[in-house]
Amino acid sequence: MSERAAESPILDVRGLKVSIAGPPELQIVRGVDLAVRAGEVHALMGPNGSGKSTLASAIAGSPAYLVDEGQVLLHGEDVTALAADERARRGLFLSFQYPTAIPGVTMVNLLRASLKARRGTEPSAREFLAELRETLATLKMDESFARRYVNDGFSGGEKKRAEILQLGMLKPTLAILDETDSGLDVDALRTVAEGVNALRSPEIGILIITHYERILNYVTPDFVHVLVDGRIVRSGDVSLAKRIEAEGYDPILRAIGEGATPVAAATGGE
Amino acid sequence: MTTVNPRARDVVGEYKWGFHDDVQPLFIAEPGLSEEVVREISALKGEPDWMTEYRVDAYRTFCEKDDPTWAGSPGLLQAIDFDKIHYYVRATDRDSTNWDDVPEYIKDTFDKLGIPEAERQFLAGAGAQYDSEVVYHNIREDLAKQGVVFLGMDQGLAEHEELVREHFGTIVPSADNRYAALNSAVWSGGSFIYVPPGVNVEIPLQAYFRINTESMGQFERTLIIADEGSYVHYVEGCTAPIYSTDSLHSAVVEIIVKKDARVRYTTIQNWSNNVYNLVTKRAAAYENAVMEWVDGNIGSKLTMKYPSVFLMEPGAHGEILSLAFAGDGQHQDAGGKVVHVAPRTTSAVVSKSVSRGSGRTSYRGLLKVHEGAEDSSSTVRCDALLLDERSRSDTYPTMEVDEERVNIGHEASVSKLGEDQLFYLMSRGITEEEAAKMVVNGFVEPIVKELPMEYAIELNRLIELQMEGSVG
Q: Do the chains contact at B429 and A170, CB–CB below 8 Å?
């Protein structure tokens, strides 16, 4: 990596506009700029329907969305035209809001195939097993979990922990956590947050997408952004999240004159 | 001595076993079928008169019977030209128990297919059939000492005539269907297995079937008798070269599972895509006996095969695990039949099918519960996976239940290779092609995990070959 590339943000989103692949084609993300540098934790907040998950999926390269304008750069490289697997092999990891089940494929199969794809070589069985056991222990997950089929018959909490297990094993340089805190009870939330905290390091950038501030009580972000109607309307430090916790989204929506839009009105606040 | 047909790639992509041996067989019957040909085959084999008459009688039945009208794509069965088929092709003049005695070119073929290697590594015995005749069979000495018989069917008839005469055609009568009649008339090769009471054959016996001659009909006949309290697992594999004309494979398999015995019969069928595979497989299970069919169909042009279990006495259990993969131009019409005759009998059918391109899969099942088979239960589950917009799958389940005190469950599903599943795997760094293979291999996992490990690996590999170029 050249010095210049090393200095550039891990994730650099520039003027990104994203539509649903449709039909009908509907623009959901309407011009987002966002830079996440190594060692930083960013939180992207916003009411339901503001485009948070669309932004996350588009950054990860989901074929369900079309990029109308703008760019996604990873480590300074434009990856806007690359497929999801190529982005992942460049260090990106998306923790899904609704992880899909893959019957017949065990967590171990998935992890080994993913590691092989990312590293180019199959990890040795001994090394893999040691890593797996350690990560499972960190997440307070039973070893039998690794032999189950991916997300097949998992409870909501198990699905989220399975995502964090993959995150811990794959060690990305950019992790996007899409509503990883939703649907978790307090204990599960704490476990997941510990998993994320264990991953924090000067080498990795983390983008936490959340509707609530709950997870931010356990993982303190360096930056907080508020997404409304496909645009980032506020950025600040953790105090912005605290304010949303106290007042909800309404004051922000009123300030930007969007309080009356149907999307925001229907889902504003909690 | 072997050549790869240049058309191979056009027909099935990377079908690995499409080569054929350029040798003149010792004997090749003129194409076409008549009573004379039937008598000639029997005479060549030096069979007892009762078998000759059995064949001739079956030939007459074959002439009278029509093709089933319900199966396959319209006209597909009718395209078989019975006058162009060689009904009997003998490549070598003996069935050997010593691999070194097998003619070099046949040995080469089976070496390429990994047969002797497999036998050394994980089989209790192996048989190999090349065109019409079994060219090799062998069984571990300790099993032979316990009285386990594993022979080619012809040799079985010669050495155990009374046992064969008592059971031959009792499970699948020659008049059962047109292709059973054809097989009964011109059968050659196949396996004869007898497991004495209480003997447990812990590792599988395997037979390998290979068609080499163009426009060849292979009609092997297998009879397995598992005596009381015994166990045996029989595995068969099939391949053929790729020719421009079609071949016909029409086998009959009869299995008798006596009281407390258990038989597992596993098939990995990977015929090239110019083989009609029309097979009748049936087992009768007696008191507390267990019969399990594990049936994997990857190759062939048209397969029609419905392994059946007749649960004859109380406590008998039948299981059918069926897996079919239909690629471009293939039709896998598969499924199973279970007939509950006695009380407290149980059965489970699991069918998984995958279709790709112009490939078609059909699940055709019959569940019949006779009056008086009370306290019996059965579950049927069939799942189909479509890989693209063109592929097709149909389900034809038939249930005839004449007893009220039974517990029957039936579930069916059809799903498409999901974009969300592909995206999920790709977001982990896995390529789209690899992701598609993982989803398909996961889909068939419930069947594959029932196979001995070596076969499971082979089957996954075959499916991956079928999947090549299916994405993007």
A: yes
In 3D, which of B232, B212, B213 has the Cα closest to residue B222? Answer: B232
Predicted TM-score of the model (pTM): 0.82
Tally the C-alpha atoms within 13 A of residue B75's C-alpha that lie toward its C-beta.
0
A109 vs B438: CB contact, 8 Å cut-off?
A: yes
How far is CA B316 from each of CA B17, B28, B232, B261, B308, rounded to the nearest angstrom? Answer: 39, 44, 16, 10, 13
What pLDDT was estimated at residue B326?
93
Decide if B387 contacts B440 (C-beta within 8 A). yes
pLDDT at B114: 65
> What residues of A are in contact with residue B443 (Cβ under 8 Å)?
103-104
Confidence (pLDDT) at A176? 97
Mind telling me how many Å the CA of B378 is from chain A's nearest CA? 23
Q: State both tokens at A145.
A: 């979990």
- Find out whether B444 and A84 touch, Cβ atoms under 8 Å: no
Tens-place pLDDT, residues B127-154: 777 777 777 777 888 888 999 999 989 9
Torsion sign across C-alpha atoms B100, B105, B106, B109 = positive
Cβ separation A104–B420 shorter than 8 A? no
What's the burial of B49, exposed, middle or buried (CB within 10 Å: 0-12/13-18/19+)? Answer: exposed
- As a whole number of Å, the CA-based R_g of chain B is 21
Q: How close B414 gets to chain A, by Cα (Å)?
A: 14
Question: How many angstroms separate the CA of residue B196 from the nearest CA in chain A?
Answer: 38
**pLDDT recorded at residue A86:** 97
Among B324, B325, B326, residue whose Cα is nearest residue B334: B324
| pLDDT of amino acid B122 | 60
CB atoms within 10 A of CB A109: 19
| Chain B residue closest in CA terms to A91 | B429
B428/A170 CB distance under 8 A: yes
Q: Are A101 and A150 in contact (CB under 8 A)?
A: yes
Name which of B381, B415, B427, B438 to mutate to probe chain A: the one with the most chain A Cβ atoms within 10 A of its Cβ.
B427
The 10s digit of each residue's pLDDT in B274-332 is 889 999 999 999 999 999 999 999 888 999 999 999 999 999 999 999 999 999 989 99
Q: Which chain A residue lies closest to B420 (C-alpha atoms)? A: A100
Whose tokens are 């070596």? That residue is B454
Residue A7: band (very low, low, confident or very high) from pLDDT cuts 50, 70, 90 = low
User: Within 10 A of A65 (CB to CB), how many other CB atoms are there?
Assistant: 21
Q: Which structure tokens are listed for B240?
A: 């053929």
Nearest CA in chain A to B448: A104
- For residue B101, the model assigns a pLDDT of 73
pLDDT tens-place string over residues B323-355? 999 999 899 999 999 999 999 999 999 999 999
For A83, which of B432, B434, B446 is closest by C-beta distance?
B432
**In chain B, which stretches have pLDDT less than 70?**
1-17, 23, 71-73, 92-95, 113-124, 240-244, 469-472
Q: How far is B342 from chain A (nearest CA, A)?
A: 35
- Give all domains of chain A, ordered by start, each with its CATH number: 3-97+173-266 (3.40.50.300)
Q: How many CB atoms lie within 10 A of CB B202?
A: 9
- Cα–Cα distance for residue pair B247/B277, rounded to 1 Å: 9
- pLDDT number for residue A263: 44
Q: Which residue of B has its CA nearest to A100?
A: B421
Task: Spell out which residues of chain A touch residue B430, defining contact as CB-CB under 8 Å.
Answer: 85, 88, 113-114, 117
